[in-house]
Amino acid sequence: MEPEIGELTARVERDSLVLREIENEIRKVIVGQDYLLDRLLVGLLVRGHLLIEGVPGLAKTLAVKTLARTLHVGFQRVQFTPDLLPADLLGTLIYDQRRGEFVPRKGPLFTNLLLADEINRAPAKVQSALLESMEERQITLGDTTYPLDDPFMVLATQNPIEQEGTYPLAEAQIDRFTLKLKLDYPTRAEEEAILERMMVEKEVAVRAVVDGGRLAALRQLADAVYLDQKMRGYILDLVGATRHPRAAGCPDLADLISFGASPRATLFLARCAKAMALLRGRAYVIPEDVKEIAADVLRHRIVASYEAEAEEVSTDDLVGRILDRIEVP
Predict the structure, then answer these.
(1) Phi, psi (5° rounding) for residue 185?
(2) 46 C-beta neighbours (distance < 10 Å), count
(3) DSSP string, 88-118
(4) CA distance linking residue 250 with residue 248, whole number of Å
(5) pLDDT top residue among 58 and 39
(6) In angstroms, what CA-CA distances link 16 with 19, 61, 196, 276, 283?
(7) CA distances from residue 66 to 59, 114, 149 in whole angstroms, order as listed
């Protein structure tokens, strides 16, 4: 058993350097945003989809486009607007007069990385067009179902401050996103570096570091990262506390949570904790890995009550209190 652990540790130490290479290429363009870059890599490793929320100008779109440039994979960007139709994403069937039959014209969803820019500007029927592709990794046109290429990842952005003319995502749609990220303003030093680098607009060469095969190997390695039984119990306790706060020793949260996180949250929290460990160059998960990613996995899967809204308690506050209360193994 020990040689296997030793071999896994060596692979993690070696291949985590590849992830750093991807990050270094992105940093040729993006200043700061450590939180965002780490989560983009976590999403890649766990085969997940990301919802990125932040005010305009925080380089959300630029970071995703730069990530795509570091990978030998297909990339499409769709600007979501109120007049967008499901066929604009999925594609449609076109009648071919020469052949006398309908043939598919595939839409931008047939790619590896899809940037859904300002997803909350499109109506619900367009947002729901993403559901099958995100969960089943396939798209149905007419009576034919087409499997999507691997990898397939949706990275959606939304603006939290402009609500007029927007369509909030339904809970069923949000739950498909592995992580929901909340971006903040850069520090003064970071903004000074942005000013220095971006004052004159110029094209920065970004090298493609990883192809589809290498990415698949990295994902398998993330799956192999060791998750101890006690750490599994810790994850179950955290998610369970969102559903039954009183039984978890958090009675003051019982009236603040209407619905807790689903089992999908348990799975993603475990997988994302493994990916965080790999990013840090470790072959095993520690409590800090779980704590670091917990809010991103849980914030969009907890439904706060009217009492919480009245008291201005956010889901981030609820996750923070649960992390403080649940005993660390």
Answers:
(1) -65, 150
(2) 24
(3) HHHEEEEEETTTTEEEEEE-TTSSSEEEEET
(4) 6
(5) 39
(6) 5, 25, 30, 10, 10
(7) 10, 13, 21
CA-closest candidate to residue 285, choices 271, 297, 295: 271
CATH fold of 226-325: Helicase, Ruva Protein; domain 3 (1.10.8)
In single-letter form, the type of residue at position 313 comes to V
Alpha-carbon gap, residue 327 to 316, rounded angstroms: 19
Residue environment code for 75-108, b if the CB has 16+ CB neighbours within 10 A, otherwise e: bbbbebeeebebebbbbeeeeeeeeeeeebeebb
Give the dihedral of Cα atoms 248, 321, 42, 190; nearest 10 deg.
Answer: -170
Asked whether the beta carbons of 240 and 320 are under 8 A apart, the reply is no
What ranges in 75-211 are assigned the alpha helix state H? 86-90, 124-128, 131-136, 171-174, 188-198
pLDDT of 306 higher than 80: yes
pLDDT in tens, 209-226: 888 888 899 999 999 999
pLDDT band at 298 (very low <50, low <70, confident <90, very high): very high
What is the spatial distance between Cα 88 and Cα 108, in angstroms, rounded to a whole number? 8
Place of tokens 């209360």: 325
**Tokens 């009576």 label which residue?**
143
Pairing of strands 144-147, 101-106: unpaired
CATH number of 2-83+110-198+209-213: 3.40.50.300
Supply the DSSP symbol for 120.
G
- Structural domain boundaries in the chain: 2-83+110-198+209-213, 226-325
Is-contact 92 109, C-beta < 8 A? no
Considering only 102-116, 196-210, 290-304, which range has the smallest mean pLDDT? 196-210
